[in-house]
Recover the amino acids of this structure.
């Protein structure tokens, strides 16, 4: 993606959302290169306004992806808390935790900004889910910065996390940066992050055992011999699934699933 940010007109987005609602769509996902900076290119951040307008259209779920800490304001979080149909789910792709690396990556936020957002969300009365994306092996990353990243995800736990090993792409500023890491080093570090995150997710997601969640039924898994779907704390394609047994279940509809077990990123339960 190249060039400046360009925000679509508010009426255009609302009209598209209305059309989707009329077609029976149950979940709408708001995403962009930097979703929560919507409107800034026109002079004022309008994301909280857009979010509230769409929440009022009556979708079962409204989900936000690609919300960076620099533009994830209290106004946005307040709107999310005010509407029951806005998923208490934040996808915040921070890329790295250490300020040196964030500066090299040309990110316009700091470690402190991330911590402020995470603490704000974790102090809420709602049980939020947090997802992030990290990158390992970016030019200039030493063992010190990598270990800092591991400490960060240990302390500020994420429900779901993806990680990439950096690879050079012609035409990007990173090509000219010194102190490049070997591709194998970046991949080994990424593997280490996912190994640690697997342990974190397994223990962290166990807090959902014994609770009942509204679940969107997405299909039937022949191998598991169970239905599968998602709750509000799981986004499509990038997060885990809820597998469950039950009767009178209809694909494309919602049901209430009691969580019996959490295993890695997936959950297992039964319809109540």
């Amino acid at each position: 993606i190249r060039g400046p940010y360009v925000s679509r007109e508010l009426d255009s987005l609302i009209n598209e959302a209305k059309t989707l609602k009329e077609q029976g769509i149950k979940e709408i996902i708001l995403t962009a290169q930097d979703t929560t900076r919507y409107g800034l290119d026109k002079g004022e951040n309008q994301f909280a306004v857009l979010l509230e307008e769409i929440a009022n259209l009556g979708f079962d779920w409204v989900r936000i992806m690609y919300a960076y800490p620099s533009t994830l304001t209290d106004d946005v979080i307040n709107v999310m808390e005010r509407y029951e149909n806005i998923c208490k789910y934040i996808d915040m792709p921070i890329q790295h935790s250490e300020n040196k690396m964030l500066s090299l990556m040309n990110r316009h936020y700091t470690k402190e900004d991330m911590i402020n957002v995470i603490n704000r969300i974790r102090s809420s009365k709602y049980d939020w889910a947090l997802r992030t994306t990290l990158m390992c092996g970016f030019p200039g990353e030493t063992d010190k910065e990598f270990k800092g990243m591991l400490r960060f995800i240990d302390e500020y736990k994420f429900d779901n996390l993806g990680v990439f090993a950096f690879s050079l792409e012609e035409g990007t500023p990173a090509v000219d940066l010194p102190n490049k890491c070997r591709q194998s080093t970046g991949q080994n570090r990424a593997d280490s992050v996912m190994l640690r995150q697997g342990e974190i997710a397994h223990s962290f997601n166990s807090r959902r055992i014994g609770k009942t969640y509204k679940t969107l039924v997405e299909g039937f898994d022949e191998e598991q011999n169970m239905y599968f779907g998602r709750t509000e704390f799981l986004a499509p394609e990038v997060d885990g699934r809820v597998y469950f047994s039950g009767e009178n279940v209809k694909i494309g509809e919602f049901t209430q699933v009691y969580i019996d077990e959490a295993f890695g990123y997936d959950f297992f339960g039964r319809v109540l």
Summary: The helical segments are 10-22, 47-55, 74-82, 99-104, 111-122, 143-155, 183-204.
